[in-house]
Amino acid sequence: MVTVAGVLADAPLVLGIETSCDETGVGLVRGDVLLADTVASSVEEHARFGGVVPEIASRAHLEALLPTLERGCADAHVRLADVDAVAVTAGPGLTGALLVGVAAAKALSLGLGVPLYGVNHLAAHIAVDRLEHGALAQPVVALLVSGGHTSLLLVADVTQDVRPLGATLDDAAGEAFDKVARLLGLPFPGGPHIDRAAAAGNPSYVTFPRGLSGPHDLQRHPADFSFSGLKTAVARWVEGRQRAGEPVPVADVAASFQEAVVDVLTAKAVRACREEGVDTLLIGGGVAANSRLRELARQRCAAAGVTLRVPRPVLCTDNGAMVAALGSALVARGAAPSLLDLAADSTLPVTSVVV
Length: 355
Ligand code: KG4
Ligand code: ZN
Hints:
- This protein is α/β, with parallel strands linked by helices.
- The chain has helices at about 1-10, 45, 55-75, 95-110, 120-125, 130-135, 175-185, 190-200, 215-220, 230-245, 250-275, 290-305, 315, 320-335, and strands at about 15-20, 25-30, 35-40, 85-90, 115-120, 140-145, 150-155, 160-165, 280-285, 305-310.
- It has 2 domains: about 5-130 and about 320-335, ATPase, nucleotide binding domain (Nucleotidyltransferase, domain 5), CATH 3.30.420.40; about 135-315, 2-Layer Sandwich (Nucleotidyltransferase, domain 5).
- Bound molecules: 5'-O-[(R)-(carboxyoxy)(hydroxy)phosphoryl]adenosine and zinc ion.
């Protein structure tokens, strides 16, 4: 106990700020211990447009940032003056939205006289698992599934060595969830709604295509994904029903679509572990909150003798804790901080963990 308390008291307090999309996130982390994860979302302001409107997101971040920061400090029972380092999402994401977080982080770093780390949002989705399951095994295969990205990564060290094994050739998994939800008349963002609707549906009702999974594709694209054909197949199927004047069985279509997505994601992720000789799979990003993805990954990893790590759902979707977790890992490694002229980079590649 003494050691645990000692580590907790001694480890630097890292503040994480996330503003890459529609969530204003503030996280406070000491070592691997999560002290606060405070999120303000503008998602309801975007819902009627069926997608995130960048200008609305930027303005919402401006309004939410300071109150969220204050709430985060109160939740963690710390003062801003206690913060030892500031980490912020520098990319990828919406430029205007990123700028709000980056500007705030620079001001805090300068005002508090503490180092600044501009970090990669995608690496942060991986690093957040430290807060739940402790230090990462090295290496791990990471399946990163969010609204804007879907890739398989070989992560030797999340603070400095992240290598792509494959990625989606078209839509991201989350994007496919959101588009299919729209087709089915479900609200934005569609992922959680499809997840809930599918719980009452039959996943074998329609056999939708599994992208890039035939023998020839598996040879050429073992770790790549494609979801646009699946999305089109669902649209055709729904249109066929509507033309025939028949009702669309929303729960069954949602379950069948979801099954097609998670079947391919889990099959390719487990295969990548085998190919790379890696015995741990980590799943991160908003789609990792999906209940069927978590369940099928659990089954397939158990069958393949692979250890599965998935953070709890609230840590999978965008938040500040994940940025603080990566910042904390960078501080622990003694990584060089970012410069104060740090720029937001909307297309920051996953290989750039810190800017
Ligand atoms: O990582 P994230 O919060 O933001 C980005 O970095 O994009 O991911 C958002 C995506 C959205 O497409 C949303 O529909 C999806 O994650 N998502 C889900 C679930 N919860 C969020 N998709 C499927 N099932 C869920 N339960
Ligand atoms: Zn994300």
